[in-house]
Amino acid sequence: MKPTVVMTQTKMYTNQSVNIVHLPLIETKSLSFDIQVLGEHYQWLLFSSQNAVRHFLPYMSQVSYEKVAVIGIKTAQICEKYGIEVDFIPHNYSQEGFLESFNAESSDKILIPSSKGARP
């Protein structure tokens, strides 16, 4: 009898020596927000996660922006999958790494679609 392992993240993993049960424990939902923010012009859109891209995708055509920055290669890949050109990815895939290497003008407006519990 093979042991059973519960995987909470992805269905990509398989293994012949164990039974893998895929059980996601987190559900993401789009949040309501003040749609008037879409009427502004932004120099940058900043996506810090794949979920941010997925949930903001329906609004991309409604917002005026010049460039897109992402934190992490997986976030960049999902942007590319949806036809969003990425202009900046920090070498250190963290908020701290982003702040160390991102050079915006002090007058730049940056829109950051994020979760309710995201770090500021």
Automatic annotation (TrEMBL):
Any one Gene Ontology BP term: uroporphyrinogen III biosynthetic process
Keyword Protein transport: no
Catalysis performed (reactions): hydroxymethylbilane = uroporphyrinogen III + H2O
Gene3D superfamilies: 3.40.50.10090
Pathway per the UniProt entry: Porphyrin-containing compound metabolism; protoporphyrin-IX biosynthesis; coproporphyrinogen-III from 5-aminolevulinate: step 3/4
Enzyme Commission numbers on file: 4.2.1.75
Entry's Gene Ontology molecular function annotations: uroporphyrinogen-III synthase activity
Domain Tetrapyrrole biosynthesis uroporphyrinogen III synthase: 16-120
InterPro entries, sorted: 4pyrrol_syn_uPrphyn_synt_sf (IPR036108), 4pyrrol_synth_uPrphyn_synth (IPR003754), UROS/Hem4 (IPR039793)
Keywords, comma-separated and alphabetical: Lyase, Porphyrin biosynthesis
Family annotation (Pfam families): HEM4 (PF02602)
Family recorded in the similarity comment: Belongs to the uroporphyrinogen-III synthase family.
Role: Catalyzes cyclization of the linear tetrapyrrole, hydroxymethylbilane, to the macrocyclic uroporphyrinogen III.
Name of the protein in its database record: Uroporphyrinogen-III synthase
Lineage: Bacteria, Bacillati, Bacillota, Bacilli, Bacillales
